[in-house]
Prior knowledge:
Elements: E1 2-4, E2 10-12, E3 15-17, H1 38-42, H2 46-65, H3 75-78, H4 98-111, H5 117-142, H6 144-155, H7 167-183, H8 188-202, H9 208-221, H10 226-246, H11 261-278, H12 284-304, H13 306-330, H14 339-352, H15 368-410, H16 432-442, H17 450-459, E4 465-467, E5 480-483, E6 487-493, E7 498-503, E8 510-515, E9 520-525, E10 533-536, E11 540-545
Antiparallel strand pairs: 1-2, 2-3, 4-9, 5-10, 6-9, 6-11, 7-8, 7-10
Helix pairs in contact: 2-5, 2-6, 2-15, 5-6, 5-7, 6-15, 7-8, 7-9, 7-14, 8-9, 8-10, 9-10, 9-13, 11-12, 11-13, 11-14, 12-13, 13-14, 15-17
Amino acid sequence: MLDAHDNGDHVVDGAQTIVDRRPFRDTPPKVRSDRPPARQRFETSWIDLVFALAVGATAIAYLNLSRNTYFSGEDWPLSLRGYSLSDYLQPYNGHLSIVTLATYRVLFKVFGFETYAPWRFVGVVAILSAPVALYCIARVKVGQLIAAVAAGYLLWFPHTVLSAASIGYSVAVTAAIICAYALGRDDTTGDVVVGAALVVGLGSADVALATVAACIVHAACTRAGPRRWIAVLAPAVVWAGWWVRYHDSNSRAPAALRLDASGYVHTTFDGIRNSFDALAFDNHFAGTILMVAFVVHLAWRLRQGLQASVNVLAWTTALIVCWLLLADSRGTLANVNSIQYVLSGSVFILLALIPTKPLKLPELTRSPVAALALVVAGALIVVGNQGPITDAAHTQRQVSLASKRMSAQVNLGQSVVPDNRRLGPNLGNLTAKQFRRAADAYGAPGGAGVNAADKVLIDTTNFQFVREANALPCTRPRPQLGLPAVGRVRISTGSAPTQVTVRRFGNIPIPIGSVPARTTVTVQLAGPTRRPWTVIAPGACVAAVRRTR
Length: 549
Protein backbone atom coordinates (compact mmCIF):
# COMPACT_ATOMS: atom_id res chain seq x y z
CA MET A 1 0.00 0.00 0.00
CA LEU A 2 1.32 3.40 -0.94
CA ASP A 3 1.13 6.16 1.71
CA ALA A 4 1.96 9.82 1.11
CA HIS A 5 4.13 11.67 3.59
CA ASP A 6 4.38 15.40 4.14
CA ASN A 7 8.06 15.50 3.19
CA GLY A 8 7.35 14.18 -0.28
CA ASP A 9 8.92 10.78 0.23
CA HIS A 10 6.90 7.66 -0.39
CA VAL A 11 6.56 4.53 1.66
CA VAL A 12 5.80 1.16 0.09
CA ASP A 13 4.74 -1.43 2.66
CA GLY A 14 6.60 0.41 5.39
CA ALA A 15 9.84 0.93 3.43
CA GLN A 16 10.77 4.51 2.74
CA THR A 17 12.19 5.33 -0.70
CA ILE A 18 14.37 8.42 -0.97
CA VAL A 19 13.78 10.37 -4.14
CA ASP A 20 16.68 12.51 -5.53
CA ARG A 21 15.17 15.88 -6.35
CA ARG A 22 18.36 17.53 -7.61
CA PRO A 23 17.87 18.85 -11.15
CA PHE A 24 19.19 16.52 -13.83
CA ARG A 25 22.31 17.84 -15.57
CA ASP A 26 23.34 16.38 -18.89
CA THR A 27 26.95 17.52 -18.52
CA PRO A 28 29.77 15.20 -19.59
CA PRO A 29 32.21 14.36 -16.81
CA LYS A 30 35.49 16.21 -16.63
CA VAL A 31 38.56 14.57 -18.03
CA ARG A 32 40.79 13.68 -15.11
CA SER A 33 44.27 12.29 -14.95
CA ASP A 34 44.39 9.44 -12.45
CA ARG A 35 46.84 10.31 -9.71
CA PRO A 36 48.77 7.37 -8.28
CA PRO A 37 48.76 6.84 -4.53
CA ALA A 38 51.28 8.78 -2.46
CA ARG A 39 53.32 5.64 -1.81
CA GLN A 40 53.92 5.17 -5.53
CA ARG A 41 54.63 8.85 -6.17
CA PHE A 42 57.34 9.10 -3.54
CA GLU A 43 58.81 5.61 -3.67
CA THR A 44 62.54 5.80 -4.45
CA SER A 45 64.73 3.35 -6.32
CA TRP A 46 68.24 2.89 -7.66
CA ILE A 47 67.31 4.98 -10.68
CA ASP A 48 66.53 7.97 -8.46
CA LEU A 49 70.00 7.67 -6.95
CA VAL A 50 71.70 7.39 -10.34
CA PHE A 51 69.80 10.41 -11.69
CA ALA A 52 70.67 12.50 -8.60
CA LEU A 53 74.34 11.62 -9.05
CA ALA A 54 74.09 12.51 -12.74
CA VAL A 55 72.68 15.94 -11.89
CA GLY A 56 75.53 16.58 -9.44
CA ALA A 57 78.17 15.37 -11.90
CA THR A 58 76.69 17.54 -14.66
CA ALA A 59 76.75 20.60 -12.39
CA ILE A 60 80.42 20.01 -11.61
CA ALA A 61 81.22 19.46 -15.30
CA TYR A 62 79.42 22.65 -16.36
CA LEU A 63 81.08 24.72 -13.64
CA ASN A 64 84.42 23.35 -14.81
CA LEU A 65 83.64 24.12 -18.48
CA SER A 66 82.70 27.68 -17.57
CA ARG A 67 86.00 28.33 -15.79
CA ASN A 68 87.82 31.52 -16.82
CA THR A 69 84.66 33.07 -18.24
CA TYR A 70 83.89 36.69 -17.52
CA PHE A 71 81.21 39.29 -18.14
CA SER A 72 80.54 39.42 -21.86
CA GLY A 73 77.79 40.04 -24.38
CA GLU A 74 74.42 40.66 -22.73
CA ASP A 75 75.92 40.74 -19.23
CA TRP A 76 77.05 44.32 -19.84
CA PRO A 77 73.74 45.99 -20.86
CA LEU A 78 72.04 44.09 -18.02
CA SER A 79 74.36 45.86 -15.59
CA LEU A 80 72.59 49.12 -16.51
CA ARG A 81 69.08 47.78 -15.80
CA GLY A 82 66.99 47.56 -12.65
CA TYR A 83 67.94 50.90 -11.08
CA SER A 84 64.24 51.73 -10.50
CA LEU A 85 61.03 49.74 -10.09
CA SER A 86 59.59 51.12 -13.34
CA ASP A 87 62.64 49.88 -15.24
CA TYR A 88 61.65 46.26 -14.56
CA LEU A 89 58.58 46.79 -16.75
CA GLN A 90 60.63 48.08 -19.67
CA PRO A 91 61.20 45.35 -22.30
CA TYR A 92 64.58 43.70 -22.62
CA ASN A 93 65.17 42.35 -26.13
CA GLY A 94 61.42 42.63 -26.63
CA HIS A 95 60.59 40.48 -23.59
CA LEU A 96 59.13 41.15 -20.18
CA SER A 97 62.27 40.04 -18.32
CA ILE A 98 61.55 40.74 -14.67
CA VAL A 99 63.19 37.50 -13.51
CA THR A 100 66.43 38.15 -15.43
CA LEU A 101 66.63 41.81 -14.45
CA ALA A 102 65.94 41.08 -10.78
CA THR A 103 68.52 38.27 -10.70
CA TYR A 104 71.22 40.44 -12.26
CA ARG A 105 70.40 43.39 -10.04
CA VAL A 106 70.78 41.30 -6.88
CA LEU A 107 74.02 39.71 -8.06
CA PHE A 108 75.53 43.04 -9.06
CA LYS A 109 74.52 44.67 -5.78
CA VAL A 110 76.09 41.85 -3.76
CA PHE A 111 79.17 40.97 -5.82
CA GLY A 112 79.73 43.80 -8.31
CA PHE A 113 82.32 43.14 -11.00
CA GLU A 114 84.69 41.50 -8.55
CA THR A 115 83.98 37.92 -9.62
CA TYR A 116 81.89 36.14 -12.24
CA ALA A 117 81.53 32.94 -10.18
CA PRO A 118 78.00 33.73 -8.85
CA TRP A 119 76.73 34.26 -12.40
CA ARG A 120 78.25 30.94 -13.47
CA PHE A 121 76.53 29.19 -10.56
CA VAL A 122 73.13 30.78 -11.24
CA GLY A 123 73.42 29.95 -14.95
CA VAL A 124 74.16 26.28 -14.25
CA VAL A 125 71.32 26.00 -11.73
CA ALA A 126 68.91 27.49 -14.27
CA ILE A 127 70.05 25.03 -16.96
CA LEU A 128 69.61 22.05 -14.63
CA SER A 129 66.21 23.14 -13.33
CA ALA A 130 64.27 21.99 -16.41
CA PRO A 131 65.69 18.41 -16.51
CA VAL A 132 65.11 17.99 -12.77
CA ALA A 133 61.52 19.26 -13.07
CA LEU A 134 60.86 16.97 -16.04
CA TYR A 135 62.12 13.94 -14.16
CA CYS A 136 60.02 14.73 -11.10
CA ILE A 137 56.75 14.94 -13.05
CA ALA A 138 57.43 12.21 -15.64
CA ARG A 139 58.69 9.46 -13.32
CA VAL A 140 55.15 8.80 -12.07
CA LYS A 141 53.54 8.68 -15.53
CA VAL A 142 56.15 6.89 -17.67
CA GLY A 143 58.29 5.18 -15.06
CA GLN A 144 61.56 6.18 -13.52
CA LEU A 145 63.77 4.67 -16.23
CA ILE A 146 62.11 6.40 -19.19
CA ALA A 147 61.87 9.68 -17.26
CA ALA A 148 65.54 9.51 -16.30
CA VAL A 149 66.65 8.92 -19.91
CA ALA A 150 64.56 11.85 -21.20
CA ALA A 151 65.67 14.19 -18.39
CA GLY A 152 69.26 12.99 -18.73
CA TYR A 153 69.20 13.98 -22.38
CA LEU A 154 68.08 17.47 -21.38
CA LEU A 155 70.98 17.63 -18.92
CA TRP A 156 73.35 17.38 -21.90
CA PHE A 157 71.17 19.02 -24.51
CA PRO A 158 73.10 19.76 -27.75
CA HIS A 159 74.61 23.24 -28.02
CA THR A 160 73.79 24.17 -24.42
CA VAL A 161 75.29 27.61 -23.77
CA LEU A 162 76.66 28.13 -20.26
CA SER A 163 75.58 31.75 -19.94
CA ALA A 164 73.71 33.43 -17.13
CA ALA A 165 72.07 35.80 -19.63
CA SER A 166 69.86 32.90 -20.82
CA ILE A 167 68.28 32.25 -17.42
CA GLY A 168 65.00 33.82 -18.56
CA TYR A 169 64.44 31.09 -21.15
CA SER A 170 65.50 28.36 -18.72
CA VAL A 171 63.04 29.61 -16.10
CA ALA A 172 60.24 29.88 -18.69
CA VAL A 173 60.84 26.27 -19.81
CA THR A 174 60.88 25.05 -16.21
CA ALA A 175 57.63 26.92 -15.57
CA ALA A 176 56.08 25.11 -18.57
CA ILE A 177 57.04 21.73 -17.08
CA ILE A 178 55.51 22.71 -13.74
CA CYS A 179 52.34 23.74 -15.59
CA ALA A 180 52.22 20.31 -17.22
CA TYR A 181 52.20 18.76 -13.76
CA ALA A 182 49.57 21.11 -12.35
CA LEU A 183 47.23 20.71 -15.33
CA GLY A 184 46.74 17.09 -14.30
CA ARG A 185 45.32 18.17 -10.93
CA ASP A 186 41.65 19.08 -10.75
CA ASP A 187 41.84 20.89 -7.43
CA THR A 188 42.64 24.25 -5.92
CA THR A 189 46.32 23.39 -5.57
CA GLY A 190 46.52 22.66 -9.29
CA ASP A 191 44.86 25.99 -10.11
CA VAL A 192 47.25 27.93 -7.87
CA VAL A 193 50.31 26.19 -9.29
CA VAL A 194 49.18 26.79 -12.88
CA GLY A 195 48.63 30.48 -12.22
CA ALA A 196 51.91 30.91 -10.35
CA ALA A 197 53.92 29.06 -13.01
CA LEU A 198 52.42 31.18 -15.77
CA VAL A 199 53.19 34.39 -13.86
CA VAL A 200 56.83 33.35 -13.46
CA GLY A 201 57.10 32.14 -17.05
CA LEU A 202 55.57 35.26 -18.60
CA GLY A 203 57.84 37.39 -16.42
CA SER A 204 60.86 35.57 -17.81
CA ALA A 205 60.49 35.22 -21.60
CA ASP A 206 57.81 35.46 -24.28
CA VAL A 207 58.17 31.76 -25.06
CA ALA A 208 55.84 31.30 -22.06
CA LEU A 209 53.01 32.42 -24.36
CA ALA A 210 53.27 28.96 -25.89
CA THR A 211 52.65 27.54 -22.42
CA VAL A 212 49.56 29.74 -22.12
CA ALA A 213 48.31 28.27 -25.41
CA ALA A 214 48.84 24.75 -24.07
CA CYS A 215 46.95 25.57 -20.89
CA ILE A 216 44.01 27.02 -22.86
CA VAL A 217 43.76 23.91 -25.04
CA HIS A 218 43.99 21.66 -21.98
CA ALA A 219 41.32 23.62 -20.12
CA ALA A 220 39.01 23.54 -23.16
CA CYS A 221 39.45 19.80 -23.71
CA THR A 222 38.83 18.98 -20.04
CA ARG A 223 35.92 21.43 -19.73
CA ALA A 224 37.66 23.02 -16.80
CA GLY A 225 35.83 24.95 -14.13
CA PRO A 226 35.95 28.73 -13.61
CA ARG A 227 38.90 28.56 -11.20
CA ARG A 228 41.12 26.91 -13.78
CA TRP A 229 40.16 29.39 -16.47
CA ILE A 230 40.93 32.29 -14.13
CA ALA A 231 44.30 30.74 -13.29
CA VAL A 232 45.13 30.45 -17.01
CA LEU A 233 43.68 33.68 -18.39
CA ALA A 234 44.47 36.16 -15.61
CA PRO A 235 48.29 36.07 -16.11
CA ALA A 236 47.80 36.18 -19.89
CA VAL A 237 45.52 39.22 -19.67
CA VAL A 238 47.99 41.04 -17.41
CA TRP A 239 50.82 40.25 -19.84
CA ALA A 240 48.69 41.52 -22.74
CA GLY A 241 48.11 44.77 -20.85
CA TRP A 242 51.87 45.10 -20.32
CA TRP A 243 52.52 44.49 -24.02
CA VAL A 244 50.04 47.15 -25.11
CA ARG A 245 51.63 49.67 -22.74
CA TYR A 246 55.33 48.91 -23.00
CA HIS A 247 56.12 46.92 -26.15
CA ASP A 248 58.93 48.35 -28.28
CA SER A 249 60.41 47.86 -31.73
CA ASN A 250 62.10 44.61 -30.65
CA SER A 251 58.75 42.97 -29.86
CA ARG A 252 58.00 42.36 -33.52
CA ALA A 253 59.92 42.37 -36.77
CA PRO A 254 59.86 45.67 -38.73
CA ALA A 255 57.36 45.84 -41.57
CA ALA A 256 60.06 45.38 -44.20
CA LEU A 257 61.20 42.11 -42.58
CA ARG A 258 57.85 40.53 -41.79
CA LEU A 259 56.96 37.19 -43.32
CA ASP A 260 54.01 36.34 -45.50
CA ALA A 261 51.82 33.30 -44.83
CA SER A 262 54.17 30.89 -46.60
CA GLY A 263 57.12 32.37 -44.70
CA TYR A 264 55.40 31.68 -41.38
CA VAL A 265 54.72 28.09 -42.44
CA HIS A 266 58.30 27.45 -43.60
CA THR A 267 59.91 29.05 -40.55
CA THR A 268 57.60 27.21 -38.15
CA PHE A 269 58.12 23.87 -39.89
CA ASP A 270 61.92 24.31 -39.97
CA GLY A 271 61.93 25.21 -36.29
CA ILE A 272 59.81 22.21 -35.34
CA ARG A 273 62.06 19.94 -37.40
CA ASN A 274 65.13 21.35 -35.63
CA SER A 275 63.49 20.62 -32.27
CA PHE A 276 63.14 16.97 -33.29
CA ASP A 277 66.69 16.90 -34.67
CA ALA A 278 68.01 18.20 -31.34
CA LEU A 279 66.33 15.25 -29.58
CA ALA A 280 68.16 12.90 -31.98
CA PHE A 281 71.76 14.02 -31.32
CA ASP A 282 71.44 16.74 -33.99
CA ASN A 283 71.03 14.08 -36.67
CA HIS A 284 68.63 15.21 -39.38
CA PHE A 285 67.74 11.70 -40.58
CA ALA A 286 67.06 10.41 -37.06
CA GLY A 287 65.16 13.61 -36.25
CA THR A 288 62.90 13.07 -39.28
CA ILE A 289 62.13 9.53 -38.13
CA LEU A 290 61.35 10.86 -34.66
CA MET A 291 59.02 13.51 -36.11
CA VAL A 292 57.14 10.89 -38.18
CA ALA A 293 56.82 8.69 -35.09
CA PHE A 294 55.45 11.67 -33.16
CA VAL A 295 52.77 12.27 -35.80
CA VAL A 296 51.81 8.57 -35.68
CA HIS A 297 51.61 8.79 -31.88
CA LEU A 298 49.40 11.88 -32.17
CA ALA A 299 47.01 10.07 -34.52
CA TRP A 300 46.94 7.01 -32.25
CA ARG A 301 46.10 9.10 -29.21
CA LEU A 302 43.35 10.94 -31.08
CA ARG A 303 41.76 7.60 -31.99
CA GLN A 304 41.70 6.71 -28.29
CA GLY A 305 39.54 9.71 -27.48
CA LEU A 306 39.81 13.11 -25.85
CA GLN A 307 40.91 11.90 -22.44
CA ALA A 308 43.88 10.02 -23.85
CA SER A 309 44.91 12.79 -26.26
CA VAL A 310 44.53 15.92 -24.11
CA ASN A 311 48.25 16.18 -23.27
CA VAL A 312 49.49 15.61 -26.79
CA LEU A 313 47.00 18.16 -28.16
CA ALA A 314 47.93 20.80 -25.60
CA TRP A 315 51.69 20.57 -25.93
CA THR A 316 51.70 20.10 -29.69
CA THR A 317 49.87 23.42 -29.76
CA ALA A 318 52.62 24.89 -27.59
CA LEU A 319 55.26 23.55 -29.99
CA ILE A 320 53.61 25.25 -32.97
CA VAL A 321 52.97 28.53 -31.13
CA CYS A 322 56.59 28.62 -29.89
CA TRP A 323 57.97 28.79 -33.43
CA LEU A 324 55.21 31.08 -34.66
CA LEU A 325 56.33 33.54 -31.98
CA LEU A 326 59.89 33.48 -33.31
CA ALA A 327 58.68 33.96 -36.88
CA ASP A 328 56.57 36.93 -35.82
CA SER A 329 59.22 38.63 -33.67
CA ARG A 330 62.19 38.16 -36.02
CA GLY A 331 60.63 37.89 -39.47
CA THR A 332 63.10 37.08 -42.22
CA LEU A 333 65.91 37.28 -39.65
CA ALA A 334 64.44 34.39 -37.60
CA ASN A 335 67.15 31.92 -36.62
CA VAL A 336 65.59 28.46 -36.46
CA ASN A 337 68.80 27.21 -34.82
CA SER A 338 68.33 29.49 -31.80
CA ILE A 339 69.16 27.29 -28.80
CA GLN A 340 66.51 28.94 -26.63
CA TYR A 341 63.67 28.13 -29.02
CA VAL A 342 65.05 24.72 -30.01
CA LEU A 343 65.23 23.76 -26.33
CA SER A 344 61.71 25.04 -25.68
CA GLY A 345 60.35 23.12 -28.67
CA SER A 346 62.10 19.92 -27.61
CA VAL A 347 60.67 20.19 -24.10
CA PHE A 348 57.16 20.70 -25.50
CA ILE A 349 57.63 17.53 -27.58
CA LEU A 350 58.58 15.54 -24.48
CA LEU A 351 55.64 16.94 -22.52
CA ALA A 352 53.29 15.96 -25.35
CA LEU A 353 54.47 12.35 -25.07
CA ILE A 354 53.57 12.06 -21.37
CA PRO A 355 50.30 10.10 -21.09
CA THR A 356 47.39 11.21 -18.93
CA LYS A 357 47.31 7.84 -17.15
CA PRO A 358 50.43 6.20 -15.68
CA LEU A 359 51.98 3.38 -17.68
CA LYS A 360 52.00 -0.04 -16.07
CA LEU A 361 55.62 -1.17 -16.21
CA PRO A 362 57.30 -4.28 -14.83
CA GLU A 363 59.22 -4.13 -11.57
CA LEU A 364 62.43 -4.74 -13.54
CA THR A 365 62.36 -1.10 -14.72
CA ARG A 366 63.11 0.01 -11.13
CA SER A 367 65.76 -2.61 -10.41
CA PRO A 368 69.57 -2.27 -10.18
CA VAL A 369 69.75 -3.73 -13.70
CA ALA A 370 67.67 -0.81 -14.97
CA ALA A 371 69.93 1.60 -13.07
CA LEU A 372 72.94 0.06 -14.81
CA ALA A 373 71.20 0.47 -18.18
CA LEU A 374 70.59 4.12 -17.27
CA VAL A 375 74.31 4.61 -16.60
CA VAL A 376 75.12 3.21 -20.04
CA ALA A 377 72.47 5.40 -21.70
CA GLY A 378 73.78 8.45 -19.83
CA ALA A 379 77.32 7.77 -20.97
CA LEU A 380 76.15 7.56 -24.60
CA ILE A 381 74.26 10.84 -24.23
CA VAL A 382 77.32 12.62 -22.83
CA VAL A 383 79.59 11.22 -25.55
CA GLY A 384 77.13 12.18 -28.26
CA ASN A 385 76.42 15.75 -27.10
CA GLN A 386 79.45 16.94 -25.15
CA GLY A 387 81.33 18.04 -28.30
CA PRO A 388 79.05 20.98 -29.23
CA ILE A 389 78.71 21.95 -25.56
CA THR A 390 82.48 21.99 -25.10
CA ASP A 391 82.95 24.00 -28.30
CA ALA A 392 80.38 26.56 -27.15
CA ALA A 393 82.15 26.84 -23.77
CA HIS A 394 85.52 27.34 -25.50
CA THR A 395 84.05 30.11 -27.65
CA GLN A 396 82.58 31.70 -24.53
CA ARG A 397 86.01 31.70 -22.87
CA GLN A 398 87.61 33.38 -25.87
CA VAL A 399 84.92 36.06 -25.89
CA SER A 400 85.40 36.53 -22.15
CA LEU A 401 89.14 37.05 -22.56
CA ALA A 402 88.58 39.72 -25.20
CA SER A 403 85.94 41.36 -23.00
CA LYS A 404 88.25 41.39 -20.00
CA ARG A 405 91.14 42.90 -21.97
CA MET A 406 88.98 45.66 -23.41
CA SER A 407 87.23 46.45 -20.13
CA ALA A 408 90.55 46.93 -18.34
CA GLN A 409 91.59 49.54 -20.88
CA VAL A 410 88.26 51.37 -20.86
CA ASN A 411 88.83 51.85 -17.12
CA LEU A 412 91.85 54.04 -17.92
CA GLY A 413 89.66 56.94 -18.99
CA GLN A 414 88.86 59.03 -22.04
CA SER A 415 92.50 59.58 -22.97
CA VAL A 416 92.72 55.88 -23.85
CA VAL A 417 89.11 55.09 -24.90
CA PRO A 418 86.83 58.09 -25.67
CA ASP A 419 83.36 58.19 -24.15
CA ASN A 420 81.56 57.98 -27.50
CA ARG A 421 83.38 54.87 -28.70
CA ARG A 422 81.29 51.73 -29.23
CA LEU A 423 82.94 48.80 -27.51
CA GLY A 424 81.64 46.05 -29.79
CA PRO A 425 79.48 42.96 -29.23
CA ASN A 426 81.84 41.44 -26.64
CA LEU A 427 80.86 44.29 -24.33
CA GLY A 428 77.21 44.37 -25.35
CA ASN A 429 77.73 47.25 -27.83
CA LEU A 430 77.86 49.70 -24.94
CA THR A 431 79.55 53.04 -25.35
CA ALA A 432 82.58 53.71 -23.19
CA LYS A 433 80.48 56.22 -21.25
CA GLN A 434 77.81 53.61 -20.44
CA PHE A 435 80.53 51.17 -19.43
CA ARG A 436 82.06 53.64 -17.01
CA ARG A 437 78.64 54.35 -15.53
CA ALA A 438 78.29 50.65 -14.70
CA ALA A 439 81.84 50.62 -13.32
CA ASP A 440 81.02 53.58 -11.08
CA ALA A 441 78.02 51.68 -9.70
CA TYR A 442 79.59 48.25 -9.18
CA GLY A 443 83.37 48.75 -9.20
CA ALA A 444 85.90 48.81 -12.01
CA PRO A 445 86.03 45.41 -13.79
CA GLY A 446 89.48 43.92 -13.31
CA GLY A 447 90.57 46.76 -11.02
CA ALA A 448 91.37 50.41 -11.62
CA GLY A 449 94.66 52.00 -12.57
CA VAL A 450 97.26 51.54 -15.28
CA ASN A 451 99.12 48.71 -13.56
CA ALA A 452 95.88 46.81 -13.02
CA ALA A 453 95.10 47.25 -16.71
CA ASP A 454 98.50 45.85 -17.63
CA LYS A 455 98.02 42.85 -15.37
CA VAL A 456 94.61 42.03 -16.85
CA LEU A 457 95.86 42.51 -20.39
CA ILE A 458 98.89 40.29 -19.90
CA ASP A 459 97.06 37.63 -17.87
CA THR A 460 94.51 37.22 -20.65
CA THR A 461 97.01 37.13 -23.52
CA ASN A 462 98.63 33.89 -24.61
CA PHE A 463 102.21 34.94 -25.37
CA GLN A 464 103.87 32.26 -27.49
CA PHE A 465 107.66 32.04 -27.67
CA VAL A 466 108.55 30.61 -31.09
CA ARG A 467 112.10 29.26 -31.09
CA GLU A 468 114.11 29.83 -34.26
CA ALA A 469 116.26 27.05 -35.68
CA ASN A 470 119.41 29.16 -35.87
CA ALA A 471 120.29 31.28 -32.85
CA LEU A 472 121.51 34.77 -33.69
CA PRO A 473 124.56 36.06 -31.82
CA CYS A 474 124.02 38.79 -29.23
CA THR A 475 127.28 40.74 -28.99
CA ARG A 476 125.79 44.13 -28.09
CA PRO A 477 122.84 43.63 -25.78
CA ARG A 478 119.83 45.90 -26.26
CA PRO A 479 117.58 44.81 -23.39
CA GLN A 480 114.64 47.22 -23.89
CA LEU A 481 112.49 48.09 -26.86
CA GLY A 482 109.36 50.11 -27.46
CA LEU A 483 107.19 48.21 -29.91
CA PRO A 484 104.05 49.31 -31.81
CA ALA A 485 100.65 48.06 -30.70
CA VAL A 486 100.74 45.13 -33.11
CA GLY A 487 103.93 43.41 -34.13
CA ARG A 488 106.57 40.77 -33.45
CA VAL A 489 109.73 41.06 -31.42
CA ARG A 490 112.90 38.93 -31.70
CA ILE A 491 114.86 38.17 -28.54
CA SER A 492 118.37 36.67 -28.72
CA THR A 493 120.35 35.71 -25.63
CA GLY A 494 124.07 35.44 -25.06
CA SER A 495 125.81 33.21 -22.56
CA ALA A 496 123.09 33.66 -19.92
CA PRO A 497 119.32 33.13 -19.96
CA THR A 498 116.94 36.06 -19.54
CA GLN A 499 113.54 36.80 -18.04
CA VAL A 500 111.22 38.66 -20.44
CA THR A 501 108.87 41.29 -19.01
CA VAL A 502 106.49 43.70 -20.70
CA ARG A 503 104.39 46.73 -19.82
CA ARG A 504 101.95 48.82 -21.77
CA PHE A 505 100.03 51.36 -19.70
CA GLY A 506 101.69 51.07 -16.31
CA ASN A 507 105.23 51.46 -15.02
CA ILE A 508 105.66 47.99 -13.51
CA PRO A 509 107.01 45.34 -15.93
CA ILE A 510 105.19 41.99 -15.74
CA PRO A 511 106.94 38.66 -16.57
CA ILE A 512 105.65 36.75 -19.58
CA GLY A 513 108.31 34.03 -19.89
CA SER A 514 112.03 33.22 -20.08
CA VAL A 515 114.52 32.47 -22.86
CA PRO A 516 117.44 30.00 -22.40
CA ALA A 517 121.05 30.97 -23.12
CA ARG A 518 122.23 31.15 -26.75
CA THR A 519 118.69 31.02 -28.07
CA THR A 520 116.63 33.21 -30.40
CA VAL A 521 112.83 33.43 -30.12
CA THR A 522 110.09 35.58 -31.60
CA VAL A 523 107.02 36.79 -29.68
CA GLN A 524 103.77 38.16 -31.14
CA LEU A 525 102.29 41.20 -29.37
CA ALA A 526 98.84 42.67 -30.01
CA GLY A 527 96.02 44.52 -28.30
CA PRO A 528 92.75 46.38 -28.90
CA THR A 529 94.26 49.87 -28.63
CA ARG A 530 97.19 51.68 -30.27
CA ARG A 531 99.21 52.08 -27.09
CA PRO A 532 102.75 50.69 -27.73
CA TRP A 533 104.41 47.90 -25.77
CA THR A 534 107.67 48.05 -23.88
CA VAL A 535 109.63 44.78 -23.94
CA ILE A 536 112.45 44.23 -21.43
CA ALA A 537 114.92 41.31 -21.54
CA PRO A 538 118.04 42.00 -19.40
CA GLY A 539 121.31 40.95 -21.04
CA ALA A 540 119.63 40.09 -24.34
CA CYS A 541 119.25 41.66 -27.76
CA VAL A 542 115.69 42.81 -28.41
CA ALA A 543 114.67 43.88 -31.92
CA ALA A 544 111.45 44.39 -33.83
CA VAL A 545 110.71 41.98 -36.66
CA ARG A 546 109.90 43.89 -39.82
CA ARG A 547 106.86 42.90 -41.79
CA THR A 548 107.52 41.27 -45.14
CA ARG A 549 105.22 41.92 -48.07
